[in-house]
Amino acid sequence: MPSTLLTHAVVITMDADRRVFSDGYVQMEDGLVRDVGPASEAPTGRPWTQVRDLGGRHVVMPGLVNTHDHLSLSVVRGGLDELDRLEMGTKMFDALRVIDGPASYDGARCSIAELLLAGVTTTACDEFGHRDRPAGVLQACREMGICTLFGRATMDSTDETVNSQTIPLDFREAPEDAIARVEELRRDYDSPLIAVHPSAVSTMRVSTEMMRALSEYAAAERLMLMLHMGADRDEQAESQRRYGKLLVEYMADIGALESQVLLAHATWTEESEIPLLAQHDVAVAHCPESNAHEGDPISRVASWLAAGLRVGLGSDGANTGNSQNLWETAKLAVYQQKTRERDGLYGSAELGLELLTLHGARALYQEHRLGALVPGRAADVICLDIDRPSLAPRGTILSNLVYANDRSAVRHVYVAGEERVRDGELLGYDVEELAARATSASATVMDASGFGRDVMAKSRFRWVR
Residue 165: its pLDDT value, please? Predict the structure, then answer.
């Protein structure tokens, strides 16, 4: 494996003391961070694979951690904008029937390129729908070398009372079949960079039997249980109608919070449920952009953090988050909490940096190996050019990284010590070709699902052919 020495950079370690070296170095070897410190103490005389003198013009920091995504869905980017929630669900199921393995592969490669170029080195992702969709996404993750915690999602709810929570018959499967599919993907794709986990599409879209089976399997195999919770505005009411309990109360009551649990969104959970989430050490993937896209309330991030919850940031899929730029996600997350708390003093850009890195690692239960430039952790490292206009002046670089950053400032990206981006270019791939393949796959999906006709029909702009 390569050994790399980065020198003469502002090094933001995100370690326990939050040390920042104004002129520092980072040493990477065997896929791990070996050492960090002042540049004057950098090791010499070693047969490095690469020595990069950054000349005092770069920030070096941990790679960003994305805690929620649907990588394949770049193929329907823009197709779900400004749709009624019920209509969106119907159209999404239509699309999911035709987003097959090849379309998922092309969509995922486009999303991964966007993530890597923005400095994201780890992403969580869950996928459901067409049987071949997960394999298409996992193949793209393996080839492009991004660290991935993948949830193979399932659903089986047969309750037909609330339209937004019902599932078409052809998407339903039995618990034993869902777990068998997770097992199959684990055998085929688990590696040092990829881990497959069980996932439920959402709390109310799986039966109690299914949720218990997934939870017990996750606990037995020491895996995460990944699921959407509180993403739909009527989900709480449906939980109380079916079970007489709030969402978190229901999950605790059936024993489904005993494993490591990662909740996507949790927007519509209640303040009264937070102590129960904290008691079970539950993690939340906060997705402020996709929440805003749907017109949902600002989530209780300040309360979650105050209670000690594991909270990271998620871009969500390009179907609702649209962008895969986690920098803008961090800015929005901090700004929205100022608004929610009605306190301009709440939070800081430093909180944004924590959410992007070590808090994200905690949300994925990976704080022992990700999220900080600490000896022994993964050499997931990014370098940003601080001479960009958006990052000036240098004296306020921590603020500028979160509140003013342009992702084009990301120049070099390493995942487990392997260089994936050099001088702002994705190594080994033609990004124009990746975009073209995703566009071609999108055209097929849009045509087969009827999405394309609907997108054109609702536009107020006059298209001239």
Answer: 60
The predicted-structure confidence for 11-31, as pLDDT tens digits, reads as follows: 999 999 999 999 999 999 999
Q: Which residue has the tokens 């342009």?
A: 406
Tell me the per-residue pLDDT of 374-383, one tens digit each, with 9 for 90 and over.
999 999 999 9
Q: Please name which of 89, 333, 78, 67 lies closest in space to residue 234, comparing C-alpha atoms.
A: 89
Burial 35-71 (b: 16+ CB within 10 A, else e): bbbebeebeeeeebeeebebeebbbbbbbbbbbbbbb
Residue 168: how many other CB atoms lie within 10 Å: 13
Partners of 152 in the beta sheet? Answer: 127, 198
Pairing of strands 410-415, 381-385: antiparallel
Q: What residues does 149 pair with on adjacent strands? A: 124, 195
Distance, in Å, from the CA atom of 323 to the CA atom of 77, rounded to the nearest integer, reads 9
CATH homologous superfamily, domain 3-61+379-426: Urease, subunit C, domain 1 (2.30.40.10)
Instruction: Say how far apart CA 299 and CA 387 lie, in whole Å.
Output: 35
Q: For the chain, what are the domain ranges?
A: 3-61+379-426, 64-363
Q: Comparing 449 with 121, which gets the higher pLDDT? A: 121
Domains 3-61+379-426 and 64-363 share a fold: no
The helix (run of H) or strand (run of E) holding residue 439 is helix 431-449
Other CB atoms closer than 10 Å to residue 267's CB: what's the count? 23
- In words, the CATH class of domain 64-363 is alpha beta
For residue 452, name the pLDDT band (cuts at 50, 70, 90).
low
Closest residue by Cα to residue 123 from 74, 199, 185, 69:
69
pLDDT in tens, 223-252: 999 999 998 888 898 899 999 999 999 999
Its pTM stands at 0.95
pLDDT of residue 160: 61
pLDDT bracket for residue 303 (50, 70, 90) = very high
- Cβ atoms 226, 283 nearer than 8 A: no
Say yes or no to pLDDT of 286 above 60: yes
Q: What is the DSSP string of 320-358?
A: TT----HHHHHHHHHHHHHHHHT-TTS--HHHHHHHHTH
Q: Find out whether 44 and 11 touch, Cβ atoms under 8 Å.
A: no
Residue 133: which residues within 8 A CB-CB, separation 6 or more?
72, 96, 99, 100, 101, 104, 127
